[in-house]
Amino acid sequence: MKIKNICCIGAGYVGGPTMAVIAKQCPNIKVTVVDINEARIAAWNDENLDNLPVFEPGLDAIVAEARGRNLFFSTEVDKAIDEAEMIFISVNTPTKTYGKGKGMAADLKYIELCARQIARVSKQDKIIVEKSTLPVRTASAIKDILDNTGNDVAFQILSNPEFLAEGTAVEDLLSPDRVLIGGDTNPEGLKAIEALADVYANWVPQDRILRTNVWSSELSKLTANAFLAQRVSSINAMSEICEKTGADVNEVSKAIGMDSRIGAKFLKSSVGFGGSCFQKDILNLVYIAKSYGLNEVADYWEQVILMNEHQKQRFSDNIVSTLYNTVSGKKIAFLGWAFKKDTNDTRESAAIKIADNLLNEQAEITVFDPKVVEERIYADLEYLNTRSNEENRNLLKVENDPYKTCENAHAIAILTEWDEFKTYDWKQIFNKMQKPAFVFDGRGLLDKETLEDIGFVYYKIGTGQ
Ligand code: NAI
User: Which residue intervals define the domain UDP-glucose/GDP-mannose dehydrogenase C-terminal in the entry (predicted)?
Assistant: First the structure.
């Protein structure tokens, strides 16, 4: 079966870039990305490519090439479902905030709504592709809903988790390490798997397209995120030992990363991982393990999250204790708010937690981030519900000039590893700060010797003082 018409439900950080790349690489397939969020769709359709809702290096050029040709963004969900032979579900699957599994399980209400809508609208057979990250065995729930609608349409459910990393999404999509497709092992299931494999085969070599059963595919995505996060928590655990013993975590990372069994990637110590996925997916894994009574497995993975929380807490505690045990009324400049460089995504960013801790200590914070807009920053704080919106806005200001951000500050906290921070005139920044001038480098971004020569008191995560 040759696919000619694809619909994707959910125009977020995954749906948008993924579909843009499919449209670019498959000019003969019409790709329609739909969302219920009208503002988001309007932004995807904005003439000015600087206003796209997702910032990713290279994404604007791809949208410019394909949009209007075979890539469309729309709020007409029913119409797009009806027309497509293949439907990707790429809606959000956040951690549940209520009821059973609160704070751990994945909230599948958006997925279920999609399934019900597909069931209601569909008049011909369709292949449904789970692109969202889902707990293992979700496909059977989706199938249950689709098979019980009575309008006699045959559905195949595939799991095709997305492995892109924000900040390098376009590169990752154009040359993925692998594409994973899980489906039923009966003849109809295998046919559906091949239909999706054919789409990817337009640009991905066959040996990188893995076919598995649907449960392996669902579980592989949770496993990948758990392993990646576990590396960060492991090196962060070592960073604390380094600080106490005089070892340097960067030297330790390099030394162990050269062991080909370990590998060099994902060994950078930091103020803690963020992003919408790692925490949510590990909590989900922990919940699944507990629900099968696998308590040791659950505890093992939960520790990855606890370590990450600890890393953020000790970073802000260190700022308070270094600034003579009080930051009340002191200006602290934040460089960076995004959870990593080259994205405007702030979900679960370490900066949010650090800000919250310091605001509890009555610090006055000023934030600069090259890509994150002011309203996003306030929304992140408001979501925590720690204090009134008015207090947040009084205590925390957002600047669009990094030098002004740092003016008169007692300390600077570097919370995102944006490359441009390295190029700043640090002497000029130093001259306009309160003395002693502190830098707390939560990303190990700057050069210790240069900063100390200028006169800063410089703390780099994972290196002794
Ligand atoms: P997102 O929150 O950026 O986008 C989801 C979109 O779905 C929103 O725009 C929302 O309005 C829309 N939506 C929700 N219900 C809908 C409905 N019934 N009809 C139409 N639109 C609807 O989420 P993001 O980051 O794109 O993540 C989507 C999924 O992909 C999640 O399951 C996530 O775990 C997974 N994932 C995310 C990655 C990332 O780097 N952000 C990487 C790999 C997987």
Answer: 333-448
Q: Measure the CA dihedral 17/19/22/26, to 10°.
A: -130
Question: Each residue of 401-451: pLDDT tens digit?
Answer: 999 999 999 999 999 999 999 999 999 999 999 999 999 999 999 999 999
SS3 per-residue string spanning 411-440: EEEECCCCHHHHHCCHHHHHHCCCCCCEEE
Q: What architecture is domain 278-460?
A: 3-Layer(aba) Sandwich (3.40)
For a substitution probing ligand 1, which of 13, 116, 162, 164 has the most ligand atoms within 8 Å of its CB?
13
Look at the chain and count its residues: 465
26 included as an active-site residue = no
- Alpha-carbon dihedral angle through residues 93, 98, 100, 102, given to the nearest 10 degrees: 70
Q: How many Å lie between the centroid of ligand 1 and the Cα of residue 16?
A: 9
Is the distance from CB of 276 to CB of 13 less than 8 angstroms?
A: yes
Which residues have CB under 8 Å from 394's CB, separation 6+? none
Rounded to an integer, what distance in angstroms lies between the CA atom of residue 268 and that of residue 286?
A: 25
Cα-based angle 433, 438, 407 (whole degrees, multiple of 5): 20
Its ipTM equals 0.98
CATH fold, domain 5-204, is Rossmann fold (3.40.50)
